[in-house]
Amino acid sequence: MLELKNITYRVPESDTDAQSPSDRTIIHDLSFTFEAGGFYAITGPNGSGKTTLAKLIMGINEITSGKIIFNGSDISKLPIHERSKAGIVYGFQHPARFKGTTFRDLLSIAAGSDDEEKLIEIISRVGVCSLEFLDKRVDSKLSGGEIKKIELATVIAKNPKVAIYDEPDTGIDLWTIGPMVELLKREQRENKTTTIVVSHNKAFLEAADTLLLIKDGEIGYSGDLAGAVSILEDSSVCKFNELCQGEENAQCYR
Ligand SMILES: Nc1ncnc2c1ncn2[C@@H]1O[C@H](COP(=O)(O)OP(=O)(O)OP(=O)(O)O)[C@@H](O)[C@H]1O
Questions:
Q1: Under the phi-then-psi rule, with left for phi > 0, alpha for psi from -120 to 50, and beta for the rest, what region is 51?
Q2: Residues 196-209 pLDDT 10s
Q3: ipTM, 2 decimals?
Q4: How far apart are CA 78 and CA 30, in angstroms?
Q5: For residue 26, which atom of ligand 1 is closest to its CA?
Q6: Ligand 1 center to residue 181 CA distance, Å?
Q7: Residue 85, H or E segment
Q8: CA 78, 84, 88, 93 torsion: positive or negative?
Q9: How many Å apart are CA 161 and CA 158, to the nearest integer?
Q10: Which of 37, 141, 144, 212 is spaced 20 to 30 Å from 6 by Cα?
Q11: Separation of 115 CA from ligand 1 center, angstroms?
Q12: Which residues sit with their C-beta closer than 6 Å to ligand 1?
């Protein structure tokens, strides 16, 4: 349904902070098919290429080579707004805050309607019950959790075929992660949303039908959590050291 065919993403030497003598390949000849309606968690060490992969699917970054096929059409060259029209929506790791704009404005744009009943229905799906929240200004005064809820609501409001969330638990307290996972699972179940979550969080790894472990811009493992356990396992039996290139990175999976 969403096929990544041998995709590579390379950045020129001048764009990297390293003094490398040549271009740097961030995603390397990666192929994978996301099936319609599946729940996928993309995980892996810091800097392995997870966000880059998500951005390539959305078209925020353009692949250097390979193909991205969505429902039979080649979308590799389509700009973000065209991919969005086709049903692919991206939730940012650090959502933008706009001076003077209210949540109602953002949500109305996302939903394509300012019908209050519809907006209320959407905010209640993300666990916001207060109508007053709609008129909150989306600025630096919002908490990390509030801004994340707004971001989730704007993704959901678009009724995406494919929803991509980059570390949706950033700034969210431990007690809110469970309901957030539930929300995304419900969206998957009820709207058949293909859900792709970039996360280090165990709750999302457990919720996923399929896990993709990214290492150095390649897929180190794809499959269910049970199959990944031996790789992700902690302490003495941790085999992820090998994938992570070291104890320090492996710590994040414990
Ligand atoms: N446009 C770019 N130019 C130069 N380097 C880049 C670019 N995009 C990504 N990188 C580098 O590619 C590597 C992978 O970045 P990416 O953000 O995809 O990692 P990640 O796996 O999402 O990490 P994290 O878990 O820390 O969020 C990093 O070293 C990053 O600095």
A1: alpha
A2: 999 988 899 999 99
A3: 0.95
A4: 19
A5: 12
A6: 25
A7: helix 80-86
A8: positive
A9: 9
A10: 37
A11: 39
A12: 11, 15-16, 26, 44, 46-52
